[in-house]
Design brief:
InterPro entries: START-like_dom_sf. It contains two helices and seven strands. By secondary structure, the chain is of the alpha+beta class. The radius of gyration is 15 Å and the shape is globular.
């Protein structure tokens, strides 16, 4: 197993963050590594979709965990390997934090952690700061 995570502090509320997270078709607005994403159905556990990373082929994904306003996990399938993208919002001592993590498991973990995992982790801080800034502007109405 390969696992890496990044956590940042945010001034956004859970609701503001969740509004952006659950709007799959607009993930590319805060994550510059995504060309487009599409969800077939509602943002709920079991829903599937397609994601096209920049400079990479399209891949299918499945929402394997959705805990509204708290966390969700997207699973992509690679040959003999699973790649989970874990997203969490937590509150500690009155401060809000966003955590994005990548977990790779399976026979080819060693390969995909090098060619995909490290690139994804490198771009996470920028994407998360974009998410935080955009979320702070979302109306809570």
């Amino acid at each position: 197993m390969w696992f890496k995570e990044v956590t940042i502090k945010t001034n956004a509320t859970r609701e503001q963050i969740w509004t952006l997270w659950s709007d799959v078709e607009n993930w590319h607005k805060w994550d510059s590594d995504i060309e487009f994403a599409q969800l077939n159905g509602k943002f709920e556990e079991g829903a599937c979709g397609i994601l096209k990373p920049c400079q990479a082929p399209k891949s299918s994904f499945k929402l394997i965990n959705v805990d509204t306003l708290n966390e969700f996990t997207v699973r992509s399938f690679l040959p003999f390997t699973k790649m989970d993208f874990i997203h969490k919002v937590t509150e500690k001592e009155g401060e809000m934090y966003i955590t994005h993590a990548v977990q790779i498991t399976g026979l080819l973990t060693f390969l995909f952690s090098k060619i995909i995992g490290e690139k994804v982790i490198k771009g996470l801080p920028n994407s998360m700061h974009n998410l935080s800034e955009m979320a702070e502007k979302v109306s809570n109405e």
